[in-house]
Design a protein that fits this description.
The complex is a heterodimer of chains A (114) and B (115). With 114 residues, chain A is an all-beta fold. Helices cover 0% and strands 54% of the residues of chain A. The N and C termini of chain A lie far apart (33 Å). The chains are: A mainly beta (114), B mainly beta (115).
Chain lengths: 114, 115
């Protein structure tokens, strides 16, 4: 089984709808992240959480919110989706005790906002 | 503001040839990462470089870091088709001023290895 899973893998929604993307991990890592990837661009950090009670905005948090329900679960919400939020979304985790702080990525969620 | 630039953005090369991908970044950093992404897939960690002069090799790929020049290179030796993918560098841009965390990615280099 994959260590970092994301649901759904693909989603089509309409402008103005609320949508939630979910991420679960079995790696036992404290740190979790949400990124978006746009065609031809690298990844940009939306939100990150270093433990269950810690939530921080990343580079592009406007229009998004997150919830860290447990150590293993980190959800990303689009309260009112807009077309320019169409992108590929990745969840990632890292280990607090890893000096290299390597991030491990989920398979991604492809979101289309019409 | 930390910026990360990769070049080239697209590289088409023949099998058996050598080539280098460059990653320049704009401010000091403690860590530099290289990731691989296959089409439609997630990112896979290749290398983590932690200090000036660090060199790591895995198969036909070798990564190096020059922190003084703020430059990392990913060298491909005798390319094979299986290396076709997009390669990203990412730089750890933690801010001690506001305690914020940043991992800034380059735009990626799409590598196509032709038979």
């Amino acid at each position: 089984d994959a260590d970092v899973t994301q649901t759904p893998r693909n989603r089509i929604t309409k402008t103005g709808k609320r949508i939630m993307l979910e991420c679960s991990q079995t790696k036992g890592h404290d740190r979790m992240y949400w990124y978006r990837q746009d065609p031809g661009l690298g990844l940009r950090l939306i939100y990150y959480s270093f433990d269950v009670k810690d939530i921080n905005k990343g580079e592009i948090s406007d229009g998004y919110s997150v919830s860290r329900q447990a150590q293993a679960k980190f959800s990303l919400s689009l309260e009112s989706a807009i077309p320019n939020q169409t992108a590929l979304y990745f969840c990632a985790t890292s280990d607090l005790n890893d000096s290299q702080e390597t991030q491990y990525f989920g398979p991604g969620t492809r979101l289309l906002v019409l | 503001e930390l910026k990360v630039e990769q070049n080239p953005l697209f590289l088409s090369m023949q099998e058996g040839k050598n080539y280098t991908i460059y990653c320049n970044y704009s401010t000091t950093s403690d860590r530099l990462y290289w990731y691989r992404q296959d089409p439609g897939k997630s990112l896979e960690s290749l290398f983590v470089l932690l200090s000036n002069g660090a060199v790591k090799q895995e198969g036909r790929l070798m990564a190096s870091l020059d922190t003084k020049a703020r430059l990392s290179t990913l060298h491909i030796t005798a390319a094979v088709h299986d290396l076709s993918a997009t390669y990203f560098c990412a730089v750890d841009g933690d801010s001690w001023v506001d305690s914020s965390y940043k991992l800034i990615f380059g735009s990626g280099t799409r590598l196509l290895v032709r038979p």
